[in-house]
Amino acid sequence: MMVAFLSAISLLGSSGENYTYGCIFNLVYCGLGFGTPIVAYFYLPVFWELQVMSVFEYLERRFGVTARLVASLANFLQTSLYTGVVIYAPSLALEATTGLNGTTSILLIGLICTFYSTIGGIKAVIITDLVQGALMYICVFCVIGVALSEIDGGVSRVIEVASEGGRINFLNFKLDPTERHTFWSLSIGGTFFFLSLYATSQVQVQRMLTAKSIGDARKALFINIPLTLSLTTTVSFSGLVLYTYYRDCDPVLAGKIKSHDMIMPYFAKERMTKVPSLTGIFISGVFSASLSTVSAVLNSLAAIALSDYVKPLLRKLGKELPDNKAAFYGKMLALSIGFLSLAIAFLASKLGSLIQAVTAVHGAIGGPILGLFTLGMFFENANETGAVVGTVFALVFNMWVAFSPKPTPRKLPLSVEGCPNSTLIYTTTIPPEMDESSFLYIHRLSYLWYTPIGLIVGIIAGYVASLFVRRFSKVPISPPDPSLFTPFVASRIRKRCEKEATTGSQVFVLDTKKFDNIDS
């Protein structure tokens, strides 16, 4: 599940993250362990019982069409932003290996992905998740193998150098929420991040519903944990290996590349060319994963736009979309969305590292969406007006928090002492550190808190708004459908309904006996 979703972002972003900030980021996968049981036993049963084709169909049944439309639009925005980051990721590899400038690289990757998806439609998604995963493993092992062959001391030397450079930095238990990475922000924020990723994602829920039974779906979720950890641990280790290799001559400080997300493709270009085809295998792995992901996402967004926006609009105008024209409209929508994502790709570099960018995007929008689903599944008193008000408020608030200007995170020490002509490199101008006190406190929060903030704000605002609507509305309240709630809430509703039915039945019997006595 995770391999297809992160693709090149995981490959390039995780290695760059561990190289620059240390391996503490891997604590985020504690959240995968904490979040998976919650998904398996509280969210999945609802979708399994309903067997909905779209997660947004649940919202229409629980609340109404407006709630579905709001969530669908928010998801559309989130996925478009994510696709922009996915397009941006392989452009870094292309720039590092070919020397093309960033603008040309983004344009080339974006246009290829867009036209590939548009021409082929859903059939263009021909590279399976298994192949993507295999290619990613091959890429990483090639990098690790070549780098270790040139490091005296092998793995033990990597651990030693990484420790000396402060890269083995798991033990950060600070309670400061403005600290970029701590045990608390990674484990708690990671839990909510993976909840939004698996509990209410159209792609992930669809995959879970293809299982033969809910038990098999749960097994798939739990098996996903070690598979994800094996890949992410390997990619993270590659970042430490590359740090050891470039310890005394950092390519970014030396002016060779512009971002540490480019460190792996830069190494592939510089050192893997001595083995025939290795560089080509690496680049093909990065590109195939991204191409498949972008193609799948664009076609998915086109299908959502067609079913949720175009067809309802035509029906309101008294028209129907013929099946023979639906495919054409779908291709045109995919093309339009592709160009939108291409434009977003140019902004992706402003969001920080790849890992931070994709986490921030999903947190800013995924948190309120998760809050909407949670409000529907866990709170009986929630109604459509309250849910929509709460979600819109949470989206606006969270995006204001996430996308406002922020201080630049501090990187761990890097060096150019071992570079050729290092005395010349020291003349490079280093921008002064930004004064953090000039930013609002809420804008200094770690990006890992965006998902829980969006969830909590959405639930509180939605619930309070629902209570106001119930208090002042004269519309009769219909009894809740237990199938639309998480198991323990559904059980409570069923017991209450059974009790009310039993009480009503007893009253009816007593009344009948009274009438019988009168007749006698």
Automatic annotation (TrEMBL):
Stretches that traverse the bilayer: 26-48, 69-90, 102-122, 134-151, 182-200, 221-246, 281-307, 328-348, 354-379, 386-403, 447-469
Keyword Hydrolase in annotation: no
InterPro entries cross-referenced by the UniProt entry: Na/Glc_symporter_sf, Na/solute_symporter, Sodium:Solute_Symporter_SSF
Entries under CDD domains matching the protein: SLC5sbd_NIS-SMVT
Cellular location(s): Cell membrane
GO MF terms, alphabetically ordered: symporter activity
Statement: the UniProt record of this protein carries the keyword Transmembrane: yes
A Pfam cross-reference name: SSF
Entry keywords, A to Z: Cell membrane, Ion transport, Membrane, Signal, Sodium, Sodium transport, Transmembrane, Transmembrane helix, Transport
Lipid bilayer topology: Multi-pass membrane protein
Biological processes per GO annotation: sodium ion transport
One GO location term (cellular component): plasma membrane
Residues annotated as signal peptide: 1-16
Domain of life: Eukaryota
Family that this chain belongs to: Belongs to the sodium:solute symporter (SSF) (TC 2.A.21) family.
Protein name per Swiss-Prot or TrEMBL: CG32669_1 protein
Species for this entry: Fopius arisanus
